[in-house]
């Protein structure tokens, strides 16, 4: 579900860049869990490409 949401978000960003005649060489994504919810598992992820 997260991968699909991220893919859709990136696709919309790329559409906006194309309309502006702009380009991006790299996209960096940072994901972080809610640090205020100590009752849930905590993770930090950073990815600059999609991994299968």
Protein architecture, described:
The protein has a domain of about 30 residues. The chain has a two-stranded antiparallel ribbon. It is elongated. The longest helix has 18 residues. The chain is built from one helix and two strands; from the N terminus they run αββ. The mean pLDDT is about 75. With about 50 residues, it is an alpha+beta fold. It starts with a helix and ends in a 5-residue tail after the last strand.
Topology of this protein?
Layout (H helix, E strand, L loop, with lengths): L1 H18 L9 E4 L11 E4 L5
Antiparallel strand pairs: 1-2
Protein name: DNA polymerase Y-family little finger domain-containing protein
GO biological process, one term: DNA repair
GO molecular function: damaged DNA binding
List key phrases describing it.
1 helix, alpha+beta, 35% helix, 52 residues, DNA_pol_Y-fam_little_finger, DNA polymerase Y-family little finger domain-containing protein, damaged DNA binding
Summarize the structure.
With 52 residues, the protein is an alpha+beta fold. The chain contains one helix and two strands; from the N terminus they run αββ. It has one helix at residues 2-19; strands at 29-32, 44-47.
């Amino acid at each position: 579900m997260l991968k699909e949401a991220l893919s859709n978000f990136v696709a919309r960003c790329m559409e906006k860049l194309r309309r502006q005649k702009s380009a991006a060489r790299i996209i960096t994504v940072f994901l972080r869990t809610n640090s205020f919810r100590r009752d849930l598992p905590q993770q930090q992820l950073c990815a600059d490409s999609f991994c299968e």
